[in-house]
Design a protein that fits this description.
The chain is mainly alpha-helical. The protein has two domains: 2-96, Arc Repressor Mutant, subunit A (Orthogonal Bundle); 109-229, no CATH class. It contains ten helices and six strands; from the N terminus they run βαββαββαβααααααα. It has helices at 8-22, 52-61, 84-91, 109-115, 120-125, 129-137, 139-157, 163-181, 187-197, 207-229, and strands at 2-3, 33-35, 38-40, 65-69, 78-82, 95-96. Strands 1-6 form a two-stranded antiparallel ribbon. Strands 2-3 form a two-stranded antiparallel ribbon. A hairpin with an 8-residue loop joins strand 4 and strand 5. Helix 1 (8-22) crosses helix 2 and helix 6 (129-137) crosses helix 10.
Length: 230
């Protein structure tokens, strides 16, 4: 068993936010308001000091919170949401079980992919160009492959993000499938969707989430590129 690498104050802050969300005193996304040298959140009768934003960002780095930039706000430039991992951390008092290390290291990348059981991703990852061309040009096979790959992507990401973010993420997945199966997909739209689904659209998104998403997005990117290039 181990604990998250965050300070006592950051744990107390997350507990306070979760408590007030569950009590329906505040809602997500959380939008801090800046006044003089302090921060406040509407619905919480407390002022937060200068370290507030740093603490929120530290929670984000730990995968317990995520934030994006709010360019339209005159009060602050970040909006925050608590991830499912954040809620679970509070429920478990910030203690989690470390997975057991494998007895032996995998011999090759192919073996490693088999061990983590990502199914059809492995087949697409190692497919040659003619096989990928066949997938792209067979509408039923393309739809089936996209369904499998996007379902695995969603299964990997869903436990890590908030319900607020999940709705948008599912919509982007639907849009991605629609673009790839379209007769004339838009490269710029695909670029935007891949950036969003990989959590690399802005500096506010967590590198931890990007690491989880990219292995599942890579075969989708290969298929999309083949579809565009013909």
């Amino acid at each position: 068993m181990t604990s998250y690498d965050i300070t006592k104050e950051q744990k107390q802050l997350l507990k306070l936010l979760v408590k007030n969300i569950k009590a329906k005193k505040i809602t997500e996304p959380i939008i801090p308001e800046i006044s003089s040298n302090s921060y406040s959140i509407e619905g919480i009768d407390k002022k937060f000091g200068r370290n507030f934003i740093w603490d929120m960002e530290a929670l984000g780095e730990a995968g317990l919170m995520e934030f994006t930039y709010n360019r339209y706000s005159s009060q602050g430039n970040r909006i925050f949401t608590i991830t499912r991992a954040g809620y679970q951390a509070v429920e478990n008092n910030f203690v989690f079980a470390m997975p057991e290390e494998p007895e032996t290291a995998p011999d090759s990348l192919e073996v490693m992919l088999g061990e983590i059981n990502i199914g059809k991703i492995q087949a697409v990852w190692f497919a040659n160009l003619s096989e990928i061309h066949h997938i792209v040009n067979d509408k039923s096979l393309l739809a089936e492959t996209l369904e499998v790959l996007t379902n695995q992507l969603l299964e990997a990401i869903e436990p890590e993000i908030s319900a607020y973010k999940l709705t948008s993420y599912k919509r982007n997945i639907r849009d991605l499938k629609a673009q790839i199966t379209a007769d004339d997909p838009s490269p710029s739209t695909l670029q935007r969707l891949f950036a969003s689904l990989s959590f690399m659209e802005s500096m506010g998104d967590s590198i931890v989430l990007a690491e989880k998403a990219l292995p599942y997005l890579y075969p989708l990117l290969v298929i999309a590129n083949r579809k565009i290039s013909g």
